[in-house]
Write a structure and sequence with these properties.
Blueprint lengths: L8 H20 L4 H8 L12 H8 L3 H7 L17 H4 L13 H7 L20 E4 L7 E5 H5 L23 H5 L23 E3 L9
Antiparallel strand pairs: 1-2, 2-3
């Protein structure tokens, strides 16, 4: 025993008497009784549970878009460090999700949940352009509304002009086939931004004259 530290055996006796009683009472309350008792106990710091990777797999089954991505992995499955990578569901679990189950990046941006930087300097500002472009070569589909504002909140003009888009009306043969091949809009959409194949109405949002809204 260290010198100067009084030994109080009564405290140890009381401790060993109280622990079995505490556990027994909690167990009698049911499977969640012990956890509830610990949460109610004073001076006990709750431990935040680690993200469950099974949640990501369950989310992948909620929509065909998630299933399609799960079936086309981009990582080397034989790499022993693959399990150390953070999943998208873990990284974005605090962000609002869109109808497909992916992060709603614009909602996150507008709410201030994420704040993209315009440059290396803290004083750099985004060159936001409030200009809507209506693309009418859509056959029987509603016209496409391209909002520059929601894109320039993230990107500089040089990110898209002159490549992949020439800054000239009618100079870019954009089609869904090209987008699905990762060209034009497909350089970001279906990869970083929202999935186009399951979100037609987010782009095709302008009814053609004489036609009702798309269903």
């Amino acid at each position: 025993m260290r010198t100067g530290v009084p030994f109080r055996p009564l405290r140890f006796v009381l401790l060993f008497l109280l622990i079995p009683a505490f556990v027994g009472t909690a167990a009698a309350a049911g499977p969640g009784g012990l956890l509830a008792a610990l949460k109610a106990a004073p001076n006990v710091r709750p431990v935040e549970p680690e993200p469950d990777r099974r949640t990501a797999n369950q989310a992948a089954e909620q929509h065909p878009a998630r299933q399609a991505l799960e079936q086309n992995p981009i990582h080397d499955a034989s790499n022993p460090d693959l399990g150390r990578l953070q999943t998208i569901d873990e990284a974005t679990r605090h962000l609002k999700k869109d109808a497909v189950g992916f992060p709603d990046w614009m909602a996150a941006l507008r709410s201030g949940a994420i704040v993209p930087r315009a440059g290396l300097s803290a004083d750099a500002k985004m060159n936001v352009l409030k200009l809507d472009v209506v693309m009418r070569n859509t056959k029987e589909m509603p016209y496409v509304l391209f909002p520059h504002e929601s894109h320039t909140l993230w990107l500089d003009c040089a990110s898209c002009h002159p490549s992949p888009f020439l800054a000239q009306a009618g100079a870019n043969p954009v089609s869904m086939n090209e987008i699905f091949r990762g060209r034009y809009c497909g350089m970001c959409h279906d990869r970083v931004a929202f999935i186009t194949f399951f979100s037609c109405e987010r782009c095709h949002s302008v009814p053609q004259q004489g036609k009702g809204p798309a269903h």
